[in-house]
Write a structure and sequence with these properties.
Strands 3-4-5-2-6-7-1-8 form an eight-stranded mixed sheet, sandwiched between helices. A seven-stranded mixed sheet has the order 9-15-12-11-10-13-14. About 40% of the residues are buried. It has 15 helices and 17 strands. The protein starts with 9 loop residues before the first helix and ends in a 28-residue tail after the last helix. The protein folds into two domains: about 180 residues, P-loop containing nucleotide triphosphate hydrolases (Rossmann fold); about 190 residues, Nucleotidyltransferase, domain 5 (2-Layer Sandwich), CATH 3.30.420.280. It binds adenosine-5'-triphosphate and magnesium ion. Adenosine-5'-triphosphate binds next to helix 2. Magnesium ion (MG) binds next to helix 2.
Amino acid sequence: MTMPRIKQIKTFDTFLKKSRARINAVYGGAGSGKSFSVAQHILSKFLLERNKRILITRKTLPSLRITAWYEVVRMLKEWGIPVEINKAEFTIKFGDNEILAKSLDDPEKIKSAEFNYIWIEEATELSKEDFIQLNLRLRRVTTPDTINQMFLTFNPIDQYHWCITNLVQGNNPDTAIHHSTYKDNPFLSTEYIRELENLINQDENYYRIYTLGEPGVLRNIIYTNYFVDREWRQGKDTFYGLDFGFNNPTALLQISLHDNEVYVKEVLYKSGLTNQQVIEKLPSFGIHNSDPIYYDASEPQRGEEIRKAGFRAIPAEKNVKDGIDFVKRHRLHIHPDSANLLGEIRGYKYKEDKNGRVYEDPVKFRDHLMDALRYGLYTHRRNMRNPANEPSAEEAIGGGMQADDFGFGSDDSFFGDDSSTEGFF
Ligand SMILES: Nc1ncnc2c1ncn2[C@@H]1O[C@H](COP(=O)(O)OP(=O)(O)OP(=O)(O)O)[C@@H](O)[C@H]1O
Ligand SMILES: [Mg+2]
C-alpha cells in the first residue's frame, strides 16, 4: 500500500513525522489546520503500518461524529481506499489495523481496550482525569520500528486549563508541542482570514485565542441559562431560527416550548449551501409549511425565496441587546446532538477590549446558531400570550415585512415574571 498523493501543510507534516514523543500537543488558533493534519497523519499510520489499533476520541459522541469521525471517513472515501467502515459501531478496518471512534461520555468501551495511537480532538473538553485514563490505555504492544503516541488538538481557550499548564507549559520530556495559527494554513479562504484578523477590533481574548493561538480566558460569557438535556419535548408551539451563510455556515435550529420551558436543537450547520439548497433541505427536517421560520432580516431576498417555496419565513427582529436579554430569561434545554450549538453557546461572550472594558454587544465570531436562536425565540415571543398576534401564512407571504410590523414590544417574556431565570445555574 502506498499513500495517495495528498496535500499536506508543511509545518504539521514535518513535526508529526519527526516527533518521537509519547504525548503531542497540537494547539493554536482557529483554522490553522490542526484537525486536518492530525487526521491525515493518523490515517497514514492506519494505512501504512501493521497491526495497529487507533482510538479517535472527543468528549461527546455527537461532536465526535461530526468532526474527527466525519473527517477521517471523508478522507478515506476521497482517497478511494477500500476500507471496511462500520457506521453503527464507529469502527474502520484495513488489513489487521483498526480505528475505533469512541467518545469519553461512554468510557467503559475505552477502558476495556488498549491502543497504539490516540487522537483527542478538542482536548480542552476533557478533564485531566479523562486524559490520565486515556494515557493508561496507550499501551498496546507495538511493532519494533514504531512507538505508541497520543495527539491532542485544541484551541488554548483557557490559560489555566490543564492542557496549557500541564502540557504546553509543563516542560515534560515526554511531550512535544506544536503551535500554529491561520498563517500556517494556505487553504483558508480570504473571507475566513479577514474574519480572524478582524477579531482584533472585537475582543482581546478572542483575538488572542483564535487568531494568535495564544492562551486566553473566556470571561463575560453571555448565556449560562442552559443545560444539556437528552429528553426532547416537542410542545405544540414549535418554530425555527435561521441565520444565512455561504462561506460561513448556514445555521438553522428548532425551538419548541413545552410546560414553560424552551427546548432547542440544532437542525443544520453547513457552509457552502445556496439558498435553493437550503430550501430543498427544509422538508427533510420535518418543517411544515405552517411552522414559523424566523430568519436574518438583513437578507430579505433569501427570505422571499423561502416564502415563494411555500414556507412561512418571517423576518426576525434585529435588536441584539433586547434579544439576548430575552433569551437569557429562559431555561434552555439543549439536545446533546447539537454539538455546534453547544460549542457556540459555551464561548459566546460580550466584547471586551484590551483595557478590560466590556461592551454590551457580543463578539461576532462562531455565533451563527446564537443568532438563529435569538431570531427565533425573541421574534416569536408575543405568540405565546396571544396567538392572535401571530401573522397568518398569507400575511407572512406578503413580503417586504419587518418583524417590527407585527407590533412586537421589546422586553416581554413568554412566561411572565416567574420566568426570570437569569444566572440561576
Ligand atoms: N491539507 C489540507 N488540504 C486541504 N485543505 C486543508 C488542509 N488542511 C486544512 N485545510 C482546510 O483548512 C480548514 C481548517 O483546517 P482544520 O479544520 O484542520 O483547522 P483547525 O486548526 O482544526 O481549526 P479549529 O481550531 O477551528 O478546529 C479545513 O476545513 C480545510 O478546509
Ligand atoms: Mg479543529
